[in-house]
Amino acid sequence: MAIKLQAGKLGGMAVKVLAKAGFFAALLKFWKFIALAFTGAVSFIWKKLGRRKDDEKTVKDVAASTNADT
């Protein structure tokens, strides 16, 4: 009984090792696409959360300039 139990544990461990190897093989195969997607996501978030440029005018700036002109 103990021999079968230990063999089952070793078999389960082998399956886990093969699953991890498959995961890393997929990472190695598609690393360029993963890096490109990550870069695009970071760029999108950076643009949305980043500071506004000085040349962009907000609605308040436009309203203030039209009120000052009249």
Which regions contain 5 or more consecutive residues with pLDDT less than 50? none
The topology string of helices and strands comes to: HHH
Gap from first CA to last CA = 94 Å
Mean pLDDT: 74
Radius of gyration: 28 Å
Number of domains: 1
User: How many helices does DSSP assign?
Assistant: 3
Helix content: over 70%
What does this structure look like?
With 70 residues, the protein is mainly α. The protein has one domain. It contains three helices and no strands. It has helices spanning 2-29, 31-49, 59-69. The mean pLDDT is 74.
What does this entry show, briefly?
The protein has one domain. 83% of the residues lie in helices and 0% in strands.
Keywords, separated by commas or semicolons:
single chain; mainly alpha; 3 helices; rod-shaped
